[in-house]
Amino acid sequence: MSEPTPHRHNAIDYVELTVTELDRAKRFYADAFGWEFNDYGPGYAGIRSPKGVSAPEVGGLRADQEVRTGGPLVLLYSTDLDRSVEAVKAAGGQVVDGPYEFPGGRRFHFTDPSGNELGVWAEQ
User: Fold this and answer.
1) What is the pLDDT of residues 14-32, one digit of tens each?
2) Is 48 exposed, middle or buried (0-12, 13-18, 19+ CB in 10 A)?
């Protein structure tokens, strides 16, 4: 009999962000959002699940020479959007849109030190 898996069929399972400076990106995401990492050498760090070290990683940071803009937008959830705005700024990110209201909540977009654009949203 096989072990049950925490992965869900046809669900987003892992998000990988390209970054130009791995250590700087790790500091940014740790400072802004409290993320923790598993290091796999000089070019990759796995993003630990907030459910603990026994849970599968939720994504990774991959070092490369450049970051391509566009593509899917990753949205993070916050229980305190204004505090998240300040944490992003304090960690060295740049707010590029918002905060603004939308049906059901508020959100803002930011760029990390490598130029990746992500968003953060909160319920009203």
Assistant:
1) 999 999 999 999 999 999 9
2) middle
CB 82 within 8 A of CB 90: no
Question: In sequence order, what are the residues at sequence separation of 6 or more whose Cβ sits closer than 8 angstroms to the Cβ of residue 118?
Answer: 73, 74, 75, 76, 109, 110, 111, 112
Q: What is the C-alpha separation between 62 and 121, in angstroms, rounded? A: 25
Give the H or E element holding residue 84: helix 81-90
**For the domain with range 15-123, which CATH number is right: 3.40.1190.20, 3.10.180.10, 1.10.10.10, 3.40.630.30?**
3.10.180.10
- The length of the chain is 124
